[in-house]
Amino acid sequence: MSLNIEEKKVVVAEVSAKLKDAQAALLAEYRGLTVAQMTELRKRARQSEVFLRVVKNTLARRAVEGSSFECLKESFSGPLALAISKDPVAAAKVLAEFAKDNEALRITAGAMSGKLMSVEQVQALAKLPSREQLLAMLLGTMQAPVAKFVRTLNEVPGKFVRTLAAVRDAKQAAA
């Protein structure tokens, strides 16, 4: 089914708007995936707040014009799905995890901060912890010295109470 000019403009505007707020954009060839598999991929993408769209290459080229993802222009060939996310790791994780289970999905390129990324770089990005995990690790690291200090402060009265209990037990044993 062919799109008329107005529908094409809407698609280009939608993708361009998503690219403005994005940190990363990835391309994946989906040739060979069934409808059910594509539906599952879209579901996973939605859950991870990743915008996933199959866009005609000519429309995608127009959408990336003037954005920091213009370096992807030459990579648009064949049937491609465009994954865009604010969290650079999220899109890479979704596509890489799905590609593990479905060999038909093949990541072809990616871009982040105006630089083209190879497939190996996208795979490395997918192995990084997510933003939430990194924040949790940072919080744990920041909390560790405070927790240790509180345990140390708690040890003084605890030792005093144990000493009193030992003296009490010694007096009871002597009596």
Automatic annotation (TrEMBL):
Identify the keywords attached in UniProt to this record, alphabetized: Ribonucleoprotein, Ribosomal protein, RNA-binding, rRNA-binding
What does it do? Forms part of the ribosomal stalk, playing a central role in the interaction of the ribosome with GTP-bound translation factors.
Organism superkingdom: Bacteria
Q: Matching HAMAP family, A to Z?
A: Ribosomal_uL10
Look up keyword Metal-binding and say if it applies.
Answer: no
Upper taxonomic classification of the species?
Bacteria, Pseudomonadati, Pseudomonadota, Gammaproteobacteria, Acidiferrobacterales
> Quaternary state and partners of this protein?
Part of the ribosomal stalk of the 50S ribosomal subunit. The N-terminus interacts with L11 and the large rRNA to form the base of the stalk. The C-terminus forms an elongated spine to which L12 dimers bind in a sequential fashion forming a multimeric L10(L12)X complex.
Q: Which gene encodes it?
A: rplJ
**MF terms (GO), sorted A to Z:** large ribosomal subunit rRNA binding; structural constituent of ribosome
- A biological process (GO) annotation for this entry? translation
Query: Record's Pfam families?
Result: Ribosomal_L10
One GO cellular component term of this record is: large ribosomal subunit
Q: Which InterPro entries match?
A: Ribosomal_uL10, Ribosomal_uL10-like_sf, Ribosomal_uL10_bac, Ribosomal_uL10_bac_type, Ribosomal_uL10_CS_bac
> What PROSITE patterns does the entry give?
RIBOSOMAL_L10 (PS01109)
What is the similarity comment for this entry?
Belongs to the universal ribosomal protein uL10 family.
This chain belongs to the protein called Large ribosomal subunit protein uL10
